[in-house]
């Protein structure tokens, strides 16, 4: 090696050594944004308070102000019907009083002095939402409207309905007459356990006995979801100027029964739209999914070496309910808010050179001797 080439090599080595601190300068790069999914939220409804319940899993799927005390309108008649089932016989003969005939608002046109069966009056109250029939039931079961109201409040206390108080059997606006979405849900579930009650509230039309003057009386349901929404099965609607639109509803699909209660819905047929949206949400987005293990042979989708089938050794069955996996918000916000994405953090990484196998001074000494020593 000539002296000139050795000098050039030494200069190259020194340049590399001096450049090493620059290589050790920090590098910056964004971290990877983790993929994920947003939890499904309940629909926006007009109701001031509401609740959605899955009876098959005993789970509240979603709710909003469900314990708020509010006027309940004709959903009151659920308690009236329950007490008629519990405290009387459907074959009882009821004599209609003038007070019952003059109740007012929606009626089946009862006539003072006529006699009808409890079964007919129950149908009129629960299907047609007849206020005069509700009053007639109250007078027969409780001895008077006032006595029946006492029975209503006693039964509410027995059922643990702490946000409920009754002052009449029909639901027309009155001071201290209120309930909550949660209480009406619990009340409805008790009443629906009676086959006669559940049969009535899923009926769309009935023929009432003729009036004393021979006039025909036909009652139609106030629940427009019957026959219009898949699986709808009752149970009671209501409206007053104070309560606005109210609805306690149930629907069944694929072995699941959902309940929805809406109080204070606003707009034409808004209570039906609200319940429909809640049911769609419960059935479509909050399903129950089962996993394996019934003790029967399990066939793998992949080819296996062993000829025999796999066998599940337990009899356990697991159900996963999305509402139980933290996918619900209670209460929901009135509007959907999408937060701004959080900017990814910046991570500083210092790169340090790996030390040479020998001290730098020894390397330089070696090359100096090679250059100037020869």
What is the CATH T-level topology of the domain at 49-288? Beta-lactamase
Do you know the CATH architecture of the domain at 49-288? 3-Layer(aba) Sandwich
Query: What sequence of helices (H) and strands (E) makes up the elements?
Result: HEEEHEHEHHHHHEEEEEHEEEEEH
Which superfamily, in CATH terms, is the homologous superfamily of the domain at 49-288? DD-peptidase/beta-lactamase superfamily
CATH class annotation of the domain at 49-288: Alpha Beta
Q: Distance between the terminal alpha carbons, to the nearest Å? A: 10 Å
Biggest sheet features? 5 strands, antiparallel
Structural class: alpha+beta
The unreliable regions are 20-37, 312-320, 324-336
Q: Given the C-alpha coordinates, what overall shape results?
A: elongated
Task: Give the mean pLDDT.
Answer: 81
Q: Give the tally of β-strands.
A: 15
Number of helices: 10
- Binned, the helix content reads 25-40%
**Spatial order of the strands in the main sheet?**
3-2-10-9-8
Strand content: 15-25%
């Amino acid at each position: 090696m000539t002296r000139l080439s050795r000098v050039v090599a030494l200069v190259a080595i020194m340049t590399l050594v001096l450049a090493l601190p620059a290589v050790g300068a920090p590098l910056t790069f964004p971290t990877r944004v983790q993929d994920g999914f947003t939890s499904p939220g309940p629909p926006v409804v007009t109701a001031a308070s509401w609740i959605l319940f899955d009876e098959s899993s005993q789970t509240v799927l979603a709710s909003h102000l469900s314990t708020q005390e509010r006027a309940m309108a004709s959903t009151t008649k659920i308690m009236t019907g329950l007490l008629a089932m519990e405290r009387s016989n459907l074959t009882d003969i009821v004599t209609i009083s003038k007070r019952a005939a003059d109740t007012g608002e929606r009626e089946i046109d009862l006539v003072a002095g006529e006699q009808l069966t409890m079964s007919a009056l129950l149908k009129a109250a629960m299907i047609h939402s007849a206020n005069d029939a509700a009053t007639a039931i109250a007078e027969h079961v409780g001895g008077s409207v006032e006595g029946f109201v006492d029975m209503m409040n006693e039964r509410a206390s027995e059922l643990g309905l702490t946000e409920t108080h009754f002052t009449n059997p029909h639901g027309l606006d009155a001071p201290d007459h209120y309930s909550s979405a949660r209480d009406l849900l619990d009340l409805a579930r008790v009443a629906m356990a009676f086959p006669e009650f559940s049969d009535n509230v899923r009926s769309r039309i009935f023929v009432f006995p003729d009036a004393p003057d021979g006039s025909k009386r036909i009652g139609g349901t106030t629940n427009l979801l019957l026959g219009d929404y898949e699986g709808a099965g009752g149970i009671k609607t209501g409206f007053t100027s104070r309560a606005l639109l109210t609805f306690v509803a149930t629907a069944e699909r694929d072995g699941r029964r959902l309940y929805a209660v809406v109080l204070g819905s606003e707009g034409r047929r808004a209570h039906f739209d609200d319940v429909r949206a809640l049911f769609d949400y419960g059935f479509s987005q909050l399903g129950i999914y089962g996993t394996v293990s019934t003790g029967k042979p399990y066939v793998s989708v992949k080819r296996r070496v062993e000829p025999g089938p796999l066998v599940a050794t337990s009899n356990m069955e697991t159900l996963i309910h999305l509402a139980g996996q933290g996918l619900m918000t209670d209460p929901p916000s009135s509007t959907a808010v999408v937060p701004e994405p959080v900017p990814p953090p910046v991570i500083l990484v210092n790169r340090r050179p790996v030390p040479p196998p020998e001290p730098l001074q020894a390397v330089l000494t070696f090359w100096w001797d090679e250059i100037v020593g020869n």
